[in-house]
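JOB MANIFEST
job_type = single_chain_structure
chain_count = 1
residues = 153
[input]
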Amino acid sequence: MENNEEPQAPPLVPRVAVVVFLLKGRSVLLGRRRSSVGNSTFALPGGHLEFGESFEECAAREVKEETGLEIGKAELLTVTNNVMLEEKERKLHYVTIFTRVVVDVNIAQEQVPQNLEPDKCDGWDWYDWDHLPQPLFGPLEKMVKGGFDPFPL
């Protein structure tokens, strides 16, 4: 590169995220994000899919890293395509894999979610599905407003 050339920005490519609807009764586990993307919004636990990892492995790893909770096998629910062009810092495109884990009420008594990444989250709590906190993270809000129901029939 010559001295007068501008460095090129990395190419814009989609990333893959795996998130978990962790359900207990009619409640869902949510945390308030501390991030340049969706700051101060409530979101599900989850994160980036790592190379060679299954969706289920990623779901279990992310929940453990963020909350300390050990979860059972995650069930695939749906996939969304989220293009976020309005982000101030950078344009984002995520393919988001939504999974579900229904927590056994007896086990839920023994495990309490901890905030293991305080730089990324203000803390975790259970919220009644019919009375979710606001504001929700964009992709989750879109699903909720579209009538999506993560609870098994």
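[summary]
The two ends are 59 Å apart (CA to CA).
Residues 36 and 89 are 8 Å apart (CA to CA).
exit_status = 0
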